[in-house]
Amino acid sequence: MAPLKVTKICCIGAGYVGGPTCAVIALKCPHIQVTIVDLNKARIDAWNSPDFALPIYEPGLVEVVRQARGRNLFFSTDVDKGIEEADLIFVSVNTPTKKSGVGAGFAADLNYVELATRRIATVATSSKIVVEKSTVPCRTAESMRTILEANSRPNCRFDILSNPEFLAEGTAIADLFSPDRVLIGSLQTQEGIDACESLKQVYANWVPPHSHCRPLVFRAVQLAANAMLAQRISSVNALSALCEATGANIDEVAHAIGYDSRIGPKFLKASVGFGGSCFQKDILNLVYLSESCHLPEVAAYWRQVVEMNEYQKRRFSKRVVDTLFNTITGKRIAVLGFAFKADTGDTRESAAITLIRDFQSEKALVNIYDPQVSHEQIWTDLQEASPLAPLNTIKKQVTICKSAIEACKDAEAVVIATEWKEFKDIDWEAVYASMNKPAFVFDGRLLIDADKLRKIGFTVTTIGRPSSTLV
Ligand SMILES: NC(=O)c1ccc[n+]([C@@H]2O[C@H](COP(=O)([O-])OP(=O)(O)OC[C@H]3O[C@@H](n4cnc5c(N)ncnc54)[C@H](O)[C@@H]3O)[C@@H](O)[C@H]2O)c1
Ligand SMILES: O=c1ccn([C@@H]2O[C@H](COP(=O)(O)OP(=O)(O)O[C@H]3O[C@H](CO)[C@@H](O)[C@H](O)[C@H]3O)[C@@H](O)[C@H]2O)c(=O)[nH]1
Questions:
Q1: Phi and psi dihedrals of 178, rounded to 5?
Q2: Which residues form the UDP-glucose/GDP-mannose dehydrogenase C-terminal domain (predicted)?
Q3: Which of 322, 358, 387, 394 has the least CB density, counted as fewest CB within 10 Å?
Q4: How far apart are CA 108 and CA 99, in angstroms?
């Protein structure tokens, strides 16, 4: 039998991966009906909102949804109908770090994957290709297969594929339009190979053959890729501490290192610490996998990447306090940026959350501005970071502002926590005029022209460079 030609796709999970990924599939494959389903009604309503106020901010996403929605792209809370109608189903649900039980704090919580799989088994009355898109540990496909086969109806077969997603937030649409690679894993049976071919044909609508559809040999490849990327940042951040202590400049060091073609120039930007929903979670997962395989030295090696990241955040907060004459009690600090990186509204594991919690515990007053993160999200994150403090108490210390200029007014210090381009172009003369003196700027993202700001009168502290008095 020839491989199935996919005509209807369902994606379970309308989040940062499921939404953009399947919206792009719909755009590029007008002959395929794509339905993205989620249990979260508010999220689906936002995807369907008449004014395209989508639940996710991603450059280029609105344009994609605008073209495909209502044509061959649909968003729905009717999970069962989506499953029933589809011939290929992406499982793109969240896999957060487990909070309790065996592996708490390290292992991935696979409960959402299992629930989605069980739902497919319960609802499906015809054969399906089920694609594991979420980041999951090795052998999850086998578990899914066991659940599906144990519960399937007669004449209903399920072929399971692994197809990890490598998009980065902020550049998701560009990454999806031109992926570096598409990996697909399947059983090496004729049915598995055919299912793989069916998914390949979907991607072949826009991904050039040289970059697509390499067979997946090791499901942990995504954990490995993320661990290597995060390790690069922790390495450069460790060097940034040395640069601050010795009088070197991390940007110059990174630039020089990047000329070595074996190292390359990308992902060498020192920062206040990496964030996002993936790096920490995936490394902790790798630590767990290493420990489960009785490889404690390997586990310790990867754990150190996360510890260095925590150290980097702590070090930065301490530098702010030290520079402001060893106390920030009652002082107003403007934090510019709350998202974990620029061009996203996502705040998961954002370094800004840790910095603000540190400033709060030093009894500072904090003004926050971010161009994309909702106020509601900021309050939720701050409450989660300080669970013992009532929200009202937090609100007495923290103010969310409508612009960077407003946040900086009457502040003693400005802290750049996210590299939003607009912070580069602020009227820094006006900011200086509105601040208390001496006016300090702490650049946690190597974003601003420190010399220009010093000329205006600011005392500038930049990650990976010695303090201004030494420059
Ligand atoms: N965010 C990224 O940049 C990124 C990139 C690559 C891979 N990943 C991986 O992709 C997966 C999804 O990540 P995300 O950031 O999109 O998560 P997310 O939390 O933004 O979205 C997951 C969605 O799944 C929904 N969901 C959970 N269980 C469901 C069920 N049984 N039925 C229907 N809907 C259900 C949730 O309501 C949520 O809206 C994770 O495994 C993650 O590690 C994420
Ligand atoms: O030189 C750098 C590059 C990144 N970062 C920080 O690292 C974090 C992660 O950035 P990035 O990797 O660009 O974003 P993510 O959306 O987390 O994407 C990562 O995680 C995804 C989920 O697994 C993968 O699909 C992507 O390939 C992988 O890059 C952010 O806080 C960045 O600010 C730095 O500090 N310095």
A1: -135, 75
A2: 334-450
A3: 387
A4: 9
Mean pLDDT of 337-350: 98
Match 């940034």 to its residue by tokens.
Answer: 240
pTM: 0.94
Distance 276 CA to ligand 2 centre (A): 7
The per-residue pLDDT for range 140-154, each reduced to its tens digit, is: 888 999 999 998 888
Q: What are phi and psi of 398, to 5 degrees?
A: -120, 135
Nearest-10 Cα torsion for 373, 375, 377, 381: 110
Q: Closest ligand 1 atom, CA of 95?
A: 41
Residue 73, both tokens: 């792209």
Q: Residue 291 C-alpha to ligand 1 middle, in angstroms?
A: 26
Give me the mean pLDDT over the 413-421 stretch. 98
Q: What is the mean pLDDT of the chain?
A: 95
Whether 316 has a pLDDT exceeding 60, the answer reads yes
Q: Whole-angstrom Cα distance, residue 301 to residue 448?
A: 34
3 state SS of 432: helix
pLDDT at 2: 82
Write the single-letter amino acid at 14: A
Lookup: tokens for 288: 């767990």
Query: Residue 68: is it exposed, middle or buried by C-beta count within 10 angstroms (0-12/13-18/19+)?
Result: buried
Distance of CA 354 to the CA centre of its chain: 16
pLDDT winner (highest mean) among 200-209, 213-222, 439-448: 439-448
Collect all residues with Cβ–Cβ distance below 8 Å to 22 and sequence separation of at least 6.
Answer: 9, 11, 34, 36, 73, 90, 92
471 pLDDT above the threshold of 50: no
Containing H/E element for 452? helix 450-456
Q: Is 232 in the pocket of ligand 2 (CB under 6 A)?
A: no
Active site residue ranges: 278
Which ligand 1 atom is at minimum distance from the Cα of 135? 41
* Residue among 182, 274, 419, 445 whose CB has most ligand 2 atoms within 8 A, to mutate: 274
Beta 8-12 vs 88-91: how paired, if at all?
parallel
Name the residue at shortest CA distance from atom 11 of ligand 2: 168
Quickly state the pLDDT bin for 212 (edges 50, 70, 90).
Answer: low
Distances in Å between the alpha carbon of 59 and those of 52, 75, 169, 196, 465?
Answer: 13, 20, 9, 30, 32
**296 membership: H or E segment, kind and range:** helix 296-323
Tens of pLDDT along 61-91?
999 999 999 999 999 999 999 999 999 999 9
Ranges 96-110, 137-151, 186-200, 237-251: which has the least confidence: 137-151
Nearest protein Cα to ligand 2, atom 26: 168
